[in-house]
From TrEMBL:
<feature type="repeat" description="TPR">
    <location>
        <begin position="360"/>
        <end position="393"/>
    </location>
</feature>
<dbReference type="GO" id="GO:0051321">
    <property type="term" value="P:meiotic cell cycle"/>
</dbReference>
<keyword id="KW-0802">TPR repeat</keyword>
<protein>
    <recommendedName>
        <fullName>Protein ZIP4 homolog</fullName>
    </recommendedName>
</protein>
<dbReference type="InterPro" id="IPR011990">
    <property type="entry name" value="TPR-like_helical_dom_sf"/>
</dbReference>
<keyword id="KW-0469">Meiosis</keyword>
<dbReference type="InterPro" id="IPR013940">
    <property type="entry name" value="Spo22/ZIP4/TEX11"/>
</dbReference>
<dbReference type="Pfam" id="PF08631">
    <property type="entry name" value="SPO22"/>
</dbReference>
<dbReference type="InterPro" id="IPR019734">
    <property type="entry name" value="TPR_rpt"/>
</dbReference>
């Protein structure tokens, strides 16, 4: 069947010698196409699919010519390109082959979509036709040569709609002359555009003269301008005047400007100054965000420049400026691949073996892109070219240094600027490069020694004190490294201290203005941010907060600054206390120093209103802990000061009690703080006493730890705390933690056993009985403990009875 279908089709093609297709030939196409699809295999080959698409699209076109759109739709829908496209993508015959085949498929697809749009128009489905044409427009960037075809099709749709007086549809299709702007080179030309504009004006007037009068006038005006501009060209005006006209038009009549520029380029095609017009065209495209079209134009210009149609030196320079500006913007935005593409366009315009400083600069810029893209070998090739063109340039030497840093070549990287007699630029430029050299060394490969060397040279030789201050970016670089604290990166603050001293020296008013000093000091106050990242290193956190405070002292004092100083000192004190808890080295004295300075700052701030501010409480809390660890008896006075505050949080008192644990030992003060905390917990509207640790801590502090501490008043005090615990359990039996109940039971039982060993039998019975009262409050453990405890308790009671009888008999 397939062979018959192909023979029938070919017979019809060979018999088609006229312009029109006969009825017999139409029938032949219809039958041949139907036969081919009837014998379609399960997995058709690429060749079979291509035959099916060709026959289906041609048959669909034939039915359209026969004014039978329904039949046309049937065959156009059969011409599906998805299967063919997927086969092409899975094929491995080479990238160029695939790209070529894909382009052929896309061309066929555009034709089929345009046929389907024509069919929809014939059937009055304007909305459907718009959708098909939109898909075609989306493909024009890849198929620019079809611009005129699609533009003229839209114009014809407009004519058809106008013939049946569908003004809205007519206006839409005639406005599709915008398609021609997508690629001016392959557009339909200014004459067709003017014709479409005049018809559009007629449509507006016939549709609604009052409503669309202004649009009609604008359309006619634009058509007339097109005609006038063409007449200008015919009158042999200069290229310069034509380009000036384009610049005047572009802001208000963009489409007209580009159309006229296209005509100008065609008119002056043989002029040696044509490059000026081409560069202007590229510039206007890029200014208006038409980057893809701009790239196509650039590639055309490069091809022409390299094949004989060379640009004038002025036009060439202008184009280089455009390309470098675009590349620079992409580089600053972090799009290094795009930046490299624009620099490569510029490189294509240089002759092979050419030597000049601008080429060296271009190669340095390319090397920077390669380095950012981690393409070290390509960066080295670009730098070699830069050295060939301008070996003594300081920026070339700096580029060599950047590559050396990437390769960890210590000897090269330690001397980023080779020697003083090679500094052929200003001292400021050299200083800036030295600062940048240090930054690259530390940020890219953590080469602190190299960074320090660069900055030491700068500090020694620079005469500008303000520049030296900025150049102390070593401090900044070390700090930026600490931002990434990890096991591998642990930068000691000892590295920073000598440079910070240098910073304080040159920050003296005799060397800098107040504004300069304030600006730089404010930058270094960012150490605050790094301090917050040192949660696992309280020593670093403390030192960073202290440094931030010290830099703030270089700034004029105001309310915001004082609040920052207060926070830095509070955080430094807290970090110092934390360090004391984790380390064997005492830090309490240093903590008290931070607290003292913070108190002075806070006194100044408190002159203004600070309602509900916790600073007073925190200062007292930190001082209390520091002095408690020093066993300073003044802690009693501090506790009294806390209790005199207007509002005291129970949590604060519990924290103070924890601060008095060994090696600090103030049991009476500790119990006082806990009792007040318990009292405050009870006063709260929704007190959660079941999870309050106060009673636990009070019992733990009061229980006798040995025979010498067993006294009646001690036992009575502990008994009272136990009764408090029982009342809390009774109030919330389901909320009280089971392990806490078990702890209370165990401590009471052990106390009873201790009293039994001391022959205090009545007291022993009392405490063992107290322990038994907790058994019923155990949850999942109740059954096992009840069995064990009941047996033990019975034995204890028996022994108590025997012991009592023995005592009575002796008496």
């Amino acid at each position: 069947l397939e062979e018959c279908a192909i023979k029938l089709w070919n017979w019809g093609v060979t018999n088609n010698v006229g312009v029109t297709i006969s009825t017999i030939q139409k029938a032949q196409r219809h039958v041949a196409c139907s036969l081919l699809y009837c014998c379609e295999p399960e997995n058709p080959t690429e060749g079979t699919i291509r035959k099916q698409i060709l026959m289906a699209s041609k048959t669909g076109r034939t039915w359209l010519d026969c004014k039978n759109p329904q039949m046309a739709d049937k065959y156009l829908s059969l011409a599906s390109l998805e299967i063919l496209y997927s086969q092409l993508m899975s094929r491995g015959n080479g990238t160029a082959d695939i790209s070529s085949s894909k382009e052929d498929v896309e061309k066929d697809l555009l034709r089929i979509l345009s046929y389907q749009a024509e069919s929809a128009i014939t059937q009055g489905n304007n909305k459907e036709a718009v959708a098909y044409i939109q898909r075609c427009k989306d493909m024009l960037l890849r198929l620019p040569k079809d611009t005129a075809y699609l533009s003229l099709m839209c114009y014809n749709f407009g004519i058809d709609a106008y013939n049946v007086r569908k003004y809205e549809d007519t206006a839409f299709w005639l406005q599709s002359y915008d398609i021609g702007k997508m690629n001016m080179k392959y557009g339909p030309g200014s004459e067709v555009l003017a014709k479409a504009l005049r018809l559009l004006a007629t449509v507006y007037l016939e549709w609604d003269c009052e409503k669309f009068a202004e649009k009609a006038v604008n359309a006619v005006s634009l058509a007339n301008k097109l005609q006038q501009l063409n007449e200008m060209l015919e009158s042999e005006v200069s290229l310069e005047l034509c380009l000036s006209t384009v610049k005047l038009l572009i802001s208000e009549k963009e489409a007209l400007a580009f159309e006229y520029l296209k005509s100008v380029c065609q008119h002056f095609e043989t002029s040696p100054d044509l490059g000026t017009a081409l560069v202007l065209h590229i510039e206007l495209l890029l200014q208006r965000g038409k980057e893809l079209l701009g790239k196509q134009k650039i590639e055309d210009v490069i091809t022409g420049h390299c094949t004989g149609k060379q640009l004038t030196p002025q036009a060439l320079t202008s184009l280089h400026v455009l390309l470098w500006d675009k590349a620079s913007k992409y580089f600053e935005a972090g799009s290094y691949s795009e930046a490299l593409q624009w620099y490569n366009y510029s490189l294509s315009l240089f002759k092979g073996g050419q030597m000049e400083p601008n080429l060296a600069k271009l190669q340095r810029n390319r090397a920077s892109c390669f380095l950012k893209l981690k393409q070290l070998e390509k960066a080295k090739e670009a730098i070699k070219e830069a050295q060939r063109c301008d070996p003594d340039n300081i920026f070339t030497q700096f580029s060599v240094y950047k590559v050396a840093v990437q390769e960890n070549e210590a000897e090269k990287s330690k001397n980023p600027v080779a020697c003083e007699d090679r500094l052929l630029v200003s001292e400021d430029a050299a200083s800036n490069l030295l600062s940048l050299a240090a930054q690259i060394a530390l940020e890219q490969n953590g080469q602190q020694e190299t960074a320090m060397k660069a900055l030491e040279i700068l500090c020694e030789h620079s005469k500008d004190q303000a520049q030296v201050l900025v150049a102390l970016c070593l401090v900044r670089l070390v700090l930026s490294t600490i931002e990434k604290l990890s096991d591998e990166i642990d930068v000691s603050l000892d590295v920073l201290l000598p440079h910070l001293k240098k910073l304080q020296t040159i920050s003296h008013p005799s060397h800098m203005t107040v504004d300069q000093r304030t600006e730089e000091a404010n930058w270094f106050r960012k150490i605050w941010n790094l301090a917050l990242q040192c949660e696992s290193s309280p020593d670093k956190m403390r030192d960073f907060f202290v440094l931030s405070y010290q830099f703030s002292q270089l700034c004029p004092p105001d309310r915001t600054l004082l609040m920052g100083q207060r926070t830095c000192l509070l955080m430094a004190a807290a970090a110092s206390l934390e360090l004391g808890r984790k380390s064997s080295h005492p830090t309490q004295t240093q903590t008290l120093e931070h607290i003292q300075i913070c108190s002075e700052v806070w006194k100044t701030l408190k002159a203004s209103s600070f309602p509900m501010d916790p600073t007073d409480s925190l200062l007292l809390l930190y001082e209390f802990e520091a002095r408690a660890k020093l066993n300073d008896p003044i802690v009693e006075a501090i506790l009294e000061s806390v209790l005199e505050l207007e509002s005291v949080e129970p949590k604060m008192l519990e924290t103070m009690a924890l601060a008095m644990e060994p090696p600090a030992y103030f049991p009476l003060l500790c119990k006082k703080a806990l009792r007040v905390a318990l009292f405050l917990h009870k006063k709260q509207p929704q007190a959660d006493l079941a999870h309050c640790k106060c009673v636990h801590s009070l019992i733990k502090l009061s229980l006798p730890s040995g025979v010498s501490e067993v006294e009646a008043h001690v036992l009575e005090e502990v008994w009272n705390y136990y009764e408090e615990a029982l009342s809390i359990i009774a109030a919330a039996p389901d909320d009280f933690p089971e392990m806490e109940t078990l702890w209370l039971l165990t401590q009471a039982w052990n106390t009873g056993i201790l009293l039994y060993s001391l022959a205090q039998y009545p007291e022993a019975e009392k405490w063992c009985g107290l322990a038994m009262s907790f058994v019923r409050h155990l949850g999942s453990l109740q059954e096992s403990y009840e069995t064990q405890m009941s047996g033990l308790y019975s034995k204890i009671l028996d022994r108590l009875d025997k012991a009592k009888k023995n005592v009575n008999m002796k008496e």
